[in-house]
């Protein structure tokens, strides 16, 4: 076993999932444990559930936690898929108080993006990697030479007079019953727009729809190499655990002086 382990929790709109992570191989060290997201998903209710996930594994060290929002230095700034009362919440302090462990809170797309660069589709890729998660919305992460540039919100670019994600997310394909060709044409417009702003060396397309990449990815005409994500639903947990291990270390003791 002797591999270093971390712990990741992935907070989603419908479920809160967590597992210990083998930090050397970027894999879950045990099967993940999932609890339905409390309704309403208020900060206190969610924090209690996160504690339940940690307690399930008896994990008492620092942990990484993804959140479906902009998270700036532990502060939640937006709330797309969770209760609006999260806006302005210090998620770091809240989770630390509720769990008794030291948390690192990170945007969900950022965590998944970092995991794809370290262990997935973009492994070993130098330069600027853009990871996009195509789902209900479009999440984005930019990783430059292995380092994350946090809180890019490239799903919210304006595209043809609309919020890009309302036109090009996987949810738009389902809502409008678009063919793969029509959806790919929208993604082409989207990625070309992003390319003009960021000039990535590689684009990774994630989200559940990347499982069906052969149906649509070859139809997208981007100038950047475009590849499907490989970690799929473990990426958030893995990325959060890696960031926490790197930024908090394993002991997590040196942060306790804040009390």
Question: What can you see in these coordinates?
Answer:
32% of the residues lie in helices and 25% in strands. It is of the alpha/beta class. The chain has two domains: 5-110 and 236-258, 2-Layer Sandwich (Nucleotidyltransferase, domain 5), CATH 3.30.420.40; 124-230, Nucleotidyltransferase, domain 5 (2-Layer Sandwich). Strands 1, 2, 3, 4, 5 and 8 form a six-stranded mixed β-sheet that branches. It has a five-stranded mixed β-sheet with strand order 11-10-9-14-15. Strands 6-7 form a two-stranded antiparallel sheet. Helix 1 (43-57) crosses helix 2 (91-99) and helix 3 crosses helix 8 (235-248). It is globular. The model is unreliable at 251-259 (pLDDT under 50).
Features:
single chain, 259 residues, alpha/beta, Nucleotidyltransferase, domain 5, 2 domains, six-stranded mixed sheet, five-stranded mixed sheet, globular, disordered C terminus
Round the Cα radius of gyration to an integer and report it.
Answer: 18 Å
Question: Percent helix among the residues?
Answer: 25-40%
Shape field = globular
Give, in order, the helices and strands: EEEEHEEEHEHEEEEEHHHEHEH
Weakly predicted, low-confidence segments? 251-259
Estimate what percentage of residues fall within beta strands.
15-25%
């Amino acid at each position: 076993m002797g591999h270093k382990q971390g712990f990741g929790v992935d907070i989603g709109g419908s479920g809160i999932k967590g597992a210990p992570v083998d930090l050397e191989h970027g894999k879950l060290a045990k099967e993940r444990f999932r609890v339905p997201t409390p309704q309403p998903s208020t900060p206190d209710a969610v924090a209690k559930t996160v504690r339940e996930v940690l307690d399930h594994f008896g994990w008492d060290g620092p942990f990484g936690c993804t959140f479906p929002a902009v998270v700036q230095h532990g502060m939640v700034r937006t709330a797309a898929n969770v209760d609006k009362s999260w806006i302005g919440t210090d998620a770091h302090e809240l989770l630390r108080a509720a769990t008794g462990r030291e948390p690192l809170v990170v945007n969900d797309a950022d965590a998944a993006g970092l995991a794809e660069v370290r262990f997935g589709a973009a492994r070993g890729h130098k330069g600027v990697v853009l990871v996009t998660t195509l789902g209900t919305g479009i999440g984005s992460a930019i990783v430059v030479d292995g380092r994350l540039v946090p809180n890019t919100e490239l799903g919210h670019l304006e595209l043809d007079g609309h919020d890009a994600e309302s036109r090009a997310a996987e949810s738009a394909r389902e809502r409008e019953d678009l063919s793969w060709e029509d959806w790919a044409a929208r993604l082409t417009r989207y990625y070309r727009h992003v390319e003009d702003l960021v000039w990535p060396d590689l684009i990774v397309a994630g989200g559940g729809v990347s499982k069906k990449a052969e149906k649509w990815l070859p139809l997208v005409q981007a100038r950047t190499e475009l590849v499907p994500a490989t970690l799929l639903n473990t990426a958030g947990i893995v990325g959060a655990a890696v960031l926490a291990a790197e930024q908090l270390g394993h002991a997590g003791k040196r942060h306790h002086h804040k009390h």
